[in-house]
Write a structure and sequence with these properties.
- There is one protein chain.
- Helix content is 72%, strand content 0%.
- By secondary structure, it is mainly alpha-helical.
- The chain has two domains: 47 residues, Homeodomain-like (Arc Repressor Mutant, subunit A), CATH 1.10.10.60; 128 residues, Tetracycline Repressor, domain 2 (Orthogonal Bundle).
- Helix 1 crosses helix 2.
- It comes from Amycolatopsis echigonensis.
- InterPro entries: DNA-bd_HTH_TetR-type_CS (IPR023772), Homeodomain-like_sf (IPR009057), HTH-type_TetR-like_transc_reg (IPR050109), HTH_TetR (IPR001647), MftR_C (IPR041347).
- Keywords: DNA-binding, Transcription, Transcription regulation.
- This is TetR family transcriptional regulator.
């Protein structure tokens, strides 16, 4: 067997998701994950800090990626429209996650610890977006409100996309959620 397995990370992720689904997140161990994947603890440690990291690996890049997308949006767009454009562009960030998205959401929903980590992740994204909106000219109060609403649109779109990935792509789900919000705001 080669010393480096190019599919090791995906094998570990798949094994972890299977075990989390079968036994519950709290009842699955790293040893069980590595055994199921046919790999070692050392290999696991190359890719993930702990078993939570299987679900959240890469999420630390999301705040900067979202803020950068807001900054790259057409300068002529008002702040909220720039944020929606950024959310549409964010679909590329999730292309590789579609196969695990619904399963990941269910596992997170089953664990208060994971729910807290998810909220922390979304709070970091929101703060980064607030700063990017301020750079686009929104005042602090407006930037906070727009970022929170935008992240809610993002979260709604992601949930819908995760549940039915064979339907519309992520960008279409963002547009759908934003249109739904606008329809509720129109008298």
């Amino acid at each position: 067997m080669p010393r480096w397995d190019p599919e090791a990370k995906e094998r570990l992720r798949a094994a972890a998701l299977e075990l989390f689904a079968e036994r519950g997140y709290d009842n699955a161990t790293v040893a069980q994950i590595t055994e199921r994947a046919g790999l070692t603890r050392r290999t696991f440690s190359r890719y993930f800090a702990d078993k939570r990291d299987v679900l959240f690996a890469g999420s630390e890049q999301l705040p900067d990626a979202m803020a950068d997308a807001v900054r790259r949006a057409d300068p002529a767009l008002p702040p909220f429209q720039a944020l929606l454009a950024a959310l549409v562009d964010a679909g590329d960030l999730f292309a590789g996650l579609v196969s695990h998205a619904a399963q990941r959401r269910a596992i997170i929903a089953s664990s208060p610890e994971l729910q807290e980590r998810e909220r922390t992740k979304l709070a970091a994204v929101t703060e980064a977006v607030v700063e990017a909106l301020r750079e686009r000219g929104a005042n602090e109060s407006s930037a906070k409100m727009l970022a929170q609403v935008g992240i809610t649109v993002f979260h709604t779109a992601f949930e819908r996309w995760a549940e039915h990935p064979e339907g519309a792509d992520f960008a279409a789900r963002v547009r759908e959620a934003a249109a739904e919000l606008a329809a509720h705001l129109t008298p």
